[in-house]
Amino acid sequence: MHVHVAIIGLDRTGASIGLALKRYQNQSRAEHTFTIIGSDTKGMPMKSAEKMGAVDNFNRALLKATDNADLVFVNVPYGDLPDSDAAVDALADAVVQAIARQGGIAGASGS
């Protein structure tokens, strides 16, 4: 099964998640493959994560990074998100859409 993943926040933890997913998919017994899109408010972590192979591509725009994601990792302190309320609402919507695509049920509410 192929899974589209978005990782928001590409510090050591975010990059490690991407590397772990890539390591898993390279195992002969792996049941999943991944396309990983990363996003960060800073350009250098995105470029570093791509260079080390933790992400396949990156996009600073949260909605574009999470578009079509089946799985969203949010690795950012609340106060570090740009325009925090709007960004959290957008991420919540992306997570709800990802769950719905997988046949699950989820809800989100903004402040």
Question: Could you walk me through the main structural features you see in this protein, from its secondary elements to its overall organization?
Answer:
The protein is of the alpha/beta class and 111 residues long. The chain has one domain (2-101): NAD(P)-binding Rossmann-like Domain (Rossmann fold, 3-Layer(aba) Sandwich). Helix content is 41%, strand content 18%. It is built from 4 helices and 4 strands. A 4-stranded parallel sheet has the order 3-2-1-4, sandwiched between helices. The longest helix is centred in the last third of the chain and has 18 residues, at 84-101. The termini are far apart.
Q: What is the CATH homologous superfamily assignment? A: NAD(P)-binding Rossmann-like Domain
Percentage of residues in strands:
15-25%
Q: How many strands?
A: 4
- What is the count of DSSP helices, taking H or I runs of 4+ residues? 4
The first-level CATH class is given as Alpha Beta
Summarize the main sheet: 4 strands, parallel
Structural class: alpha/beta
Quote the distance from N terminus to C terminus.
35 Å
CATH topology (fold) name: Rossmann fold
Based on the structure given, which CATH architecture is correct? 3-Layer(aba) Sandwich
Strand order of the largest sheet: 3-2-1-4
Poorly predicted runs are 105-111
* Coarse shape: globular
Task: Indicate how many domains the architecture comprises.
Answer: 1
